[in-house]
Amino acid sequence: MKLLLLAASLRKDSVNKKLLVLAAQLLKAQGIAIDMADFAEFDVPLYHGDLNAELGLPHGAKQFIARMHAADGLIIASPEYNFSIPGTLKNLIDWVSREQPMPWLKQRVLLMSASPSLVGGNRGLWHTRVPLEACGAIVYSDMFSLASAYTAFAADGQFTDVSLQQRLKDNLTGFIHFVKALKAAGY
Amino acid sequence: MKLLLLAASLRKDSVNKKLLVLAAQLLKAQGIAIDMADFAEFDVPLYHGDLNAELGLPHGAKQFIARMHAADGLIIASPEYNFSIPGTLKNLIDWVSREQPMPWLKQRVLLMSASPSLVGGNRGLWHTRVPLEACGAIVYSDMFSLASAYTAFAADGQFTDVSLQQRLKDNLTGFIHFVKALKAAGY
Amino acid sequence: MKLLLLAASLRKDSVNKKLLVLAAQLLKAQGIAIDMADFAEFDVPLYHGDLNAELGLPHGAKQFIARMHAADGLIIASPEYNFSIPGTLKNLIDWVSREQPMPWLKQRVLLMSASPSLVGGNRGLWHTRVPLEACGAIVYSDMFSLASAYTAFAADGQFTDVSLQQRLKDNLTGFIHFVKALKAAGY
Amino acid sequence: MKLLLLAASLRKDSVNKKLLVLAAQLLKAQGIAIDMADFAEFDVPLYHGDLNAELGLPHGAKQFIARMHAADGLIIASPEYNFSIPGTLKNLIDWVSREQPMPWLKQRVLLMSASPSLVGGNRGLWHTRVPLEACGAIVYSDMFSLASAYTAFAADGQFTDVSLQQRLKDNLTGFIHFVKALKAAGY
Questions:
Q1: From B118, B123, B147, residue closest to D123, measured CB to CB
Q2: D70-79 exposure pattern, b = at least 16 Cβ within 10 A, e = fewer
Q3: What pLDDT does residue B114 have?
Q4: How much is the pLDDT for C160?
Q5: Do A104 and A97 meet the contact criterion of CB atoms below 8 Å apart?
């Protein structure tokens, strides 16, 4: 089983990237193959309907679709901008949604967030569910939000809070179980 | 396979009830057993934390849990009140969420709405997803919203619009397929 | 200037009530008259369309409208249930919205929340804005969410955290200023 | 009194632009000065935290702030992408929100949408309110959503449906009244 991991941030020292590095480590320990993507790999222009009609999807959006479809599931870790989804991530979702047949249909998605605030970016994730579910993706109910993200990681990249690390493990295990069940049933 | 069907309306001539009667007919034709519930059967008081702490769940909430857990999935058809979830439905969700272990966890839910308006109650459904998913329910991505509900039904309870009836069939078939896949995989 | 204050909780030891008691004290110090309401005063049945058509609004809903219209603005402090608006509060909003002309139109509303969690109930407030704004209320942009509410209050009812108390004062002052501006302009 | 009008679409034949052209005409008839902006004028890259930290705001975001602050209010007409806010518009909101002091604070905003669908893009507007209100903007409660937008306009740019045109006029008049009230009170 393979998962595509994507942090929806272009920032070099993104805490969402750090969260996914830890998640990747925990997933590999469970025998999951990881495709760790960089948001910059899926560089796309701001959505433009006329451009879309004339030229179809930009290279970055096609690349994202290919990588997503080569995996059994997708994990997005995203910052929260103004209590909502980053425009950058929404822009990628919008471009991808313009392909036929709908690339998001039946894709299994786990959402995570990391933020220096006490809320941990959770409000943004609820706004991220909507376009994904509107496009037919299956977004896992349980989501992981990391609060106080600047002080959460030890030098070795693990959480200093042991119970939090267990919560992350449980979230990932739950998602793997969900994806495996759907896959086993040929869904 | 058995599904619990619930129209979140106390109104005698509810268009959401009519929608579920049609859905039940289409489901039975596919060999699905139907438990058609009436919202009044799950009568509960307005949520009161002290009452809850002292007396636990009211009878109506316990009944709902029992009926939901006796089925393989749940279909809720709900009106939209003020662009959002009816307080009545939210109140039932709130009561049910106070039981341990969480009764909503892993429950498979399909949401529908019927409304005389042109929007068909769809905005309300997006607000209905949130508490259900927050409680761990698996809410099917595709939702069915019936617009212009006062003129949509023929005398025999079918939709006058053939393509709309096909859309309803497809939605139900998709949900059945999803529930069966999760069930087959022991999820 | 007079404000109606309502904690959307029936619980005797509600932290939302404690929050409003402190808010009332700070408002009185600024010369604002306070009408402190108890949620139980606006007791209404679960919304029922047929009942509404036959009998109009229940006594509790009419009482709420009268109290709201006798004030220059409304402050609601509400718990968050399952990341969303309590069904109880939504049920009152729904009943009130059935009067003609729409009682919520142009009402100035400040939303607050208190919760033992680290998120402070803020997600629920965003779901509370929607039906109010859909009904034409003017909901103040800035909202106050009290996290860790079980440990936030000193014995005298003030916040132990001085900067948090200042933030509450600023929020209230901002709202008063907003209401006064609209009132002065005859809006 | 002057209003900035912005259609959040890069499409040449955007129905949102057509809607704003009609709105501008109705506003001018009421003596309002119009600054009609083109979304391409506020061209900004995808948000990048490191770029922001190093270089501040891009030219397009600064231009938008200057134009918004030179007006008494802002009208945004926006398409709905996947039941939510366009990534492009959210990206501009995100960039603008990174300036100090917060440029959105107390800005008066009216939201509109136009869409070929029967829902008229209204779901997207509710997701557009959130970041704006989170940033302190005052978003007018009443919003205008134009359904069936491809067939709504006559050759002269007016709506063929007279009552719909009246509804648009009323919405604009209501917003003007609101902005004037706040302005008169020095808010």
A1: B123
A2: ebbbbbbbbb
A3: 98
A4: 97
A5: yes
In this prediction the pTM is 0.97
Q: Max alpha carbon distance in chain D (Å)?
A: 52
ipTM greater than cut 0.95: yes
Nearest to D15, CA basis, from D121, D124, D140: D121
A83-142, pLDDT tens digit by residue? 999 999 999 999 999 999 999 999 999 999 999 998 899 999 999 999 999 999 999 999
The number of angstroms, rounded, from the C-alpha of B143 to the middle of its chain's C-alpha atoms is: 11
Q: What is the pLDDT of residue B152?
A: 97
Name the amino acid, one letter, at D7.
A
Q: Hey, which chains touch A, using 3+ CB pairs under 8 Å? A: B, C, D
Amino acid at site B74: L
d(CA D113, nearest CA chain B) in Å: 14
The verdict on D119 touching A (C-beta cutoff 8 Å) is no
> Side chain identity at A145, as an amino acid letter?
S
Cβ atoms of A4 and A38 closer than 8 Å: no
Answer whether residue B173 is part of any domain. yes
Single out the residue of C114, C115, C61, C117 nearest to residue B46, CA to CA. C61
Who among B137, B142, B184 is closest to A136 (CB)? B142
Minimum distance, in Å, between the CA of residue C172 and any CA atom of chain D: 15
Q: What is the pLDDT of residue D89?
A: 98
What is the pLDDT confidence band of residue C69, given thresholds at 50, 70 and 90? very high
pLDDT of residue D180: 96
Query: Is the pLDDT reported for residue C111 higher than 90?
Result: yes
> Minimal Cα distance from B12: which residue of C?
C50
Supply angle C-alpha A120, A125, A130, rounded to 5: 165
- Structural domain boundaries enclosing D19: 2-184
Q: What is the CATH number of the domain that holds C89?
A: 3.40.50.360
Tens of pLDDT along A126-181?
999 999 999 999 999 999 999 999 999 999 999 999 999 999 999 999 999 999 99
Cα of B32 to nearest chain A Cα, Å: 19
- Number of structural domains, chain C? 1
Tell me which chain D residue has its CA closest to the CA of residue C104.
Answer: D141
Q: What is the phi/psi pair of residue B181, to 5°?
A: -65, -45
Residues of A in contact with B177 (CB under 8 A): 187
Nearest Cα of chain B lies from the Cα of D123 at a distance, in angstroms, of 6
Q: Given CB atoms, is A91 within the 8 Å cutoff of chain D?
A: yes
